[in-house]
Amino acid sequence: MPAKSTASSNSRSEEDNDSDVNEPLVEPREVLLPTEDFILVELKPPFADGEEGGTDLGTFFQECQSAPMLSSFSCQPTLEQQVSEISAHLAALESSLPDLDQFVESVCQSDSLK
């Protein structure tokens, strides 16, 4: 008889493990803000312990998810600055147009010699 209770407890633990496997890793929750709508997705990483995920790997994972914005994206040039940069770049290309034409001619000549 004790063997049956052990077998039934093993089957219960297997059922508990199966229920953990069937749990979704991602739980979508909809959060609405006054200025914009978005969906917050919470991820349950498979290596996290319990609710907190206090392991070193879990902490690293959380820090990577909440990384700050890169400083290169904080200084966007204005439209006026972009237009002036494009104008300056076009002026530089126009001033070097004879050199570019000479290069194209030399490439065409070397292709015709082959």
Description of the structure:
- The chain has two domains: 22-65, no CATH class; 78-114.
- 57% of the residues lie in helices and 12% in strands.
- It is elongated, with a radius of gyration of 31 Å.
- The chain has helices at residues 2-22, 56-65, 79-95, 97-113, and strands at 26-32, 37-43.
- The relative contact order is 0.05.
- Strands 1-2 form a two-stranded antiparallel sheet.
- Strand 1 (26-32) and strand 2 form a beta hairpin.
- The model is unreliable at 1-15 (pLDDT under 50).
- The N and C termini lie far apart (93 Å).
- It contains four helices and two strands; from the N terminus they run H-E-E-H-H-H.
- The chain has 114 residues and is α+β, with helices and mostly antiparallel strands.
- Residues 1-27 are annotated as: Disordered.
Topology, pairings included?
Elements: H1 2-22, E1 26-32, E2 37-43, H2 56-65, H3 79-95, H4 97-113
Antiparallel strand pairs: 1-2
Spans of at least 5 consecutive residues whose pLDDT stays below 50 are 1-15
Q: Helix share of residues?
A: 55-70%
**What can be said about the biggest beta sheet?**
2 strands, antiparallel
Shape: elongated
Q: How many beta strands in the DSSP annotation?
A: 2
Number of helices: 4
Question: Which structural class is indicated by helix and strand composition?
Answer: alpha+beta
**Rg on CA atoms, Å:** 31 Å
Give the end-to-end Cα distance, rounded to a whole number of Å: 93 Å
Strand order of the largest sheet: 1-2
Count of separate structural domains: 2
| SSE pattern, N- to C-terminal | HEEHHH
Proportion of β residues?
5-15%
Oligomer: single chain
Average pLDDT value?
A: 71
Region (Disordered): 1-27
